[in-house]
Amino acid sequence: MKNKNYYIIPIFVPHLGCQYQCIFCNQQKITGKERGKYPSTDEIEEKIHSYLSIMPAGKKTVELAYYGGSFTALPLSLQSELLLPAYKAVKRGIINKIRLSTRPDCLNDMIIKNLLKFQVTTVELGVQSFSDQVLNLARRGHSSQDVYKAVELLRKNHFQIGIQLMVGLPGETDQDLEQSIKQTIKLKPDFVRIYPVLVIDGTELAELFKQGLYNPLTLEQAVNKVKKMVLAFKKANIPVIRVGLQVTEELSEGSAVLAGPFHPAFRHLVESELYKDKLVFYLKNREEKNWIIQVHPRDISNVRGIYNSNLKYVEEKLKKKIVQVRKNEGIPRGELVLTAYLDAKDDH
């Protein structure tokens, strides 16, 4: 729900509005919410007050986010009904922002005007890929040109823009992924989400998998591909706000996921690999054997790796030893400072 002083109130509208059934999609399994049931005005207001009641006092930013469906494909009257409680909360000053997600081909001037009326601040676009062939194989029902048009329309009206990408869709090549990275950077969204493709029960992709017609990425392949994406977006100053699906009860139990690179701490795997690459880069040609690492407190587990795998890798492959990992709030997230430790015998 929170990130320091930033809080999100989630409202799920699973699969509402979407006229397509993409081969990878089963929103009920992914979100844990039944298809076709949307929250009433009273339920949304109750959830707003429930979340606000457990937030600490003091200065903070609160955003209400509509998740799970192509929001702007809903009838305009239903969009307005769902947005009204959030709009009232913004007018009262108890929340600050409103976010929703939709398809690139479900925006026009009339819809934009309505979103502005209800003071929506952020629109996330389910882009998935910039390859028209990949989009066609995924039964997306839109083209990459729809993405460019949607971004132009949103930017012209001063919305914050998010782009959601998937990795490992049927037919996707390394060149397709590279194209998606480059085009996303070219469009300069305010943030990105990255989702490795999972084979979810009840989807067309599940049937293809059962017939041997689709092979999902392994966990290692997915981590390596997503690592490349995260690094490219970081260099372009585009925040990656989520990597991997939010873990729901069905996903964590494993009943919904038939195959694919699912891991409850997928982002941790990616961040750990990025840190391992940094350690190798900085240490491989150094003569000193013993080192101290300083990182931001929230990166301690990332630099160590799962079960200290990064520290073990440095010791086994590079013949170096990390004698200490220290917290330093002055170091930016994702970065590190390495210092040679010249008296390792005094370390206990």
Could you explain how this protein is built, in words?
This protein is α/β, with parallel strands linked by helices and 348 residues long. The protein has two domains: 2-264, Aldolase class I (TIM Barrel, Alpha-Beta Barrel), CATH 3.20.20.70; 272-346. Helices cover 40% and strands 20% of the residues. The protein has 13 helices and 13 strands. It has helices at residues 27-31, 41-53, 76-92, 109-117, 132-137, 144-156, 174-187, 204-210, 219-235, 249-253, 266-283, 300-304, 309-317, and strands spanning 2-3, 6-12, 61-67, 97-102, 122-128, 160-167, 191-196, 199-200, 240-243, 257-259, 290-295, 321-327, 337-340. The protein has an eight-stranded mixed beta sheet. Strand 3 (61-67), helix 3 (76-92) and strand 4 (97-102) form a beta-alpha-beta unit. It is globular.
| Mean pLDDT across every amino acid position | 91
CATH class designation of the largest domain: Alpha Beta
Which class best fits the helix and strand makeup? alpha/beta
Instruction: Output the CATH topology of the largest domain.
Output: TIM Barrel
The helix-strand sequence is EEHHEHEHEHHEHEEHHEHEHEHHEE
What does the radius of gyration come to? 22 Å
Brief write-up:
The chain is an alpha/beta fold. The protein has helices spanning 27-31, 41-53, 76-92, 109-117, 132-137, 144-156, 174-187, 204-210, 219-235, 249-253, 266-283, 300-304, 309-317; strands at residues 2-3, 6-12, 61-67, 97-102, 122-128, 160-167, 191-196, 199-200, 240-243, 257-259, 290-295, 321-327, 337-340.
